[in-house]
Amino acid sequence: AKLISILSLLLGTTITISSNHWAMAWTGLEINTLAILPLISKPHHPRAIEAATKYFLVQAAASTLLLFSCTTNALFTGQWDITQLTHPISCLLLTTAISTKLGLVPFHFWFPEVLQGSSLMTGLLLATAMKFPPITLFLLTSSSLNYTLLTIMAIASAALGGWAGLNQTQIRKILAFSSISHLGWMTIIIIYNHKLTLITFYLYCMMTAAIFLTLKTTKSLKLSSMMAAWTKIPSLNAILMLTLLSLAGLPPLTGFLPKWLIIQELTKQGMTSTATIIALLSLLSLFFYLRLAYCATITLPPNSANYMKQWQTNKSVNTLTTTLITLTITLLPLSPMI
């Protein structure tokens, strides 16, 4: 069943990103939604079932809105081509539908709850692979999008992603708000530079994968368990601090590259005030990344004496995690060569 779900995810994504007709794009999104549901509900825990139900309802509503948008456009213009979406109402509905699928503010409420109810590996899929088809649709229809609405949602996402993550103790929820904040950075630049959006998305996926795989290795799900993770693999926990700071966008780590390029592009387009606002809002996110990094490496939990010391356990870190962490930390100096 897991193999069928994974293959269906690949099939749905491929159909959406390669389609030229709205019906096919919609079909790919539906296959994706149905394929991820068994993976979310697999633990058979009430939280997992609740997360799967929320995910299904939101994605079904967004897909219906997307289908309504392209049908309205076909009614007025006679076009089913993805790049020929020209009717103003259809453009507005499409922007809303894809934003709901991605989890942009103000359509973000489902995402932290769904991520919190999923396992770490399913959460990684939700935060990375499941974002790819909607972002591709954004890129294909960028000329048709309602840019005023998109800019407002992007700035609101950067603000709320940082603001709401401040009072969380569950790591998956913190990473969900981190994802919302990064989506704000991706959508602010989507009209002007497609390649920059894709670079930001790929680097975000790489950094998030490194963090999720590290958390899976140390079995950390909340801040208190993260504090005790140093007893399992001390070296991995120390490197986790650098990985988190890279996701925060601190130089000279990899995560600084997309933010640097986006601010540069916005300034070129004469949007200096927007660039300043979104750069200042990223300081909110930086605060909770610093808190995570602090908990991972410096803080000891108040009841540390109760934790069984695990220095002697032979835990090994797999090659994929090591490679991703290395790239997350060191890719910035290599970027001019790429």
UniProtKB/TrEMBL annotation:
It is found in: Mitochondrion inner membrane. GO terms for biological process: mitochondrial electron transport, NADH to ubiquinone. Its EC number is 7.1.1.2. Residues 286-338 form the NADH dehydrogenase subunit 2 C-terminal domain. The chain crosses the membrane at residues 56-77, 89-111, 147-167, 174-192, 198-215, 236-257, 277-296, 317-335. It is a multi-pass membrane protein. The keyword Ribosomal protein does not apply. Residues 19-284 form the NADH:quinone oxidoreductase/Mrp antiporter transmembrane domain. The keyword Protein transport does not apply. It is an enzyme of class 7 (translocase). Core subunit of the mitochondrial membrane respiratory chain NADH dehydrogenase (Complex I) which catalyzes electron transfer from NADH through the respiratory chain, using ubiquinone as an electron acceptor. Essential for the catalytic activity and assembly of complex I. PANTHER family: NADH-UBIQUINONE OXIDOREDUCTASE CHAIN 2 (PTHR46552). Belongs to the complex I subunit 2 family. This is NADH-ubiquinone oxidoreductase chain 2. The gene is ND2.
